[in-house]
Amino acid sequence: ASFTIVVFMILLGFSYGMSSTLFGAIWPEVYGTLHLGSLRAITVSLMVFMSAAGPGVTGWLIDLGVPFSTQLLYMGSFCFGAVVLMTLASHAYRVRLNQPEVI
Hints:
This protein is mostly helical.
């Protein structure tokens, strides 16, 4: 299934491109511009740290006997939970602004 690598890379590029564009547009609307630089600095530094720590933690868990497939199930569950929480948070934000919800 070598096509999955191509699909993964396309989706990864789409994800990175959309996230940088959306964060640049949404963050000033949500948090204002006063502390925007500080928020971005903290967020980017945490992303870099977690990206560096991820392979080490995964290797450590493999050494403890946790199969990589099990780790992927937990990672996927975490992502699904994050999507649910962000959906709830965006709904609460729209209600707070008294704007109609667009689905």
